[in-house]
Amino acid sequence: MMDLYFKRYRGSAEAKDYIAWATGNLYKFSRNVKVLAGMSLTNHHNLFEIEEIFQKAMQELGLQTPAELDCVHHYVKKLHMELLYSGENAISVVREIYQTAITYELSDLQEEWQELSDATDDYLDGDNSHAYTKESLQHWIVADARKRWQLHIHPLCFDVFIEQKIVSVDTSGQLTLEFERGFLTIECPWRIRNAEMILLGETDIKSNAVALEDAKELLVGKQIKQVLLLDHCPLLIVQADDVFLDLFHASSYFDGWTIGDEEELYLFSMHGGSIT
Known about the structure:
There is one protein chain. The chain is α+β, with helices and mostly antiparallel strands. It is 44% helix and 18% strand.
């Protein structure tokens, strides 16, 4: 849906885009979705009629229109993903990402891709002062894109937890950390480490009951200094004074972790690793 709406916002959506969306949603048993998907059997498409049926399908399915900026970020993410697998179109992809950042005034994104964009401009339109070849530039772009992908930090803000202390650790069922004004419930693989080594992990808990108390000793009373979410891994990292708690979502069927405060923040890692 995000792909279709991005094209709609740009004014470039065609009949085939609506039909492709409908075809991918046939399992939802919507009458209007079926009508829209059935238009693939004819070559005569009235875009006004298709748009009307699409809006009815959206209402029928109870779907909300995504914000334009969300669609833009989705588009950039898909472009970035292209660079993970092949460098064949790397130069044009970088230019498209950078141009999108300029068009939508995404200064952070623009800064992130500035160096690669400058390099492609120098190679294509400048004097190529660095003597790039197409192959060397493609190799650099792909290597940088792969590294950038793995280290990408989710924009979610966890500041509400900073400076809170971990007041208790419950190991009776799911591993649950209680903060002064919040909580973290863990249903996925985890480990506790310091800056040099792993101190305790989920495997230790399963094989040694004494380690349950070790988890409490390592965490209780510690003050949260930072919470980071690497969203493409996905990996949640909680730094509490001199130790780090890493949570690895490792299932396509089960949820991974849930974090919340006493106000409005309530996030959980769904099956497959998406954050809600």
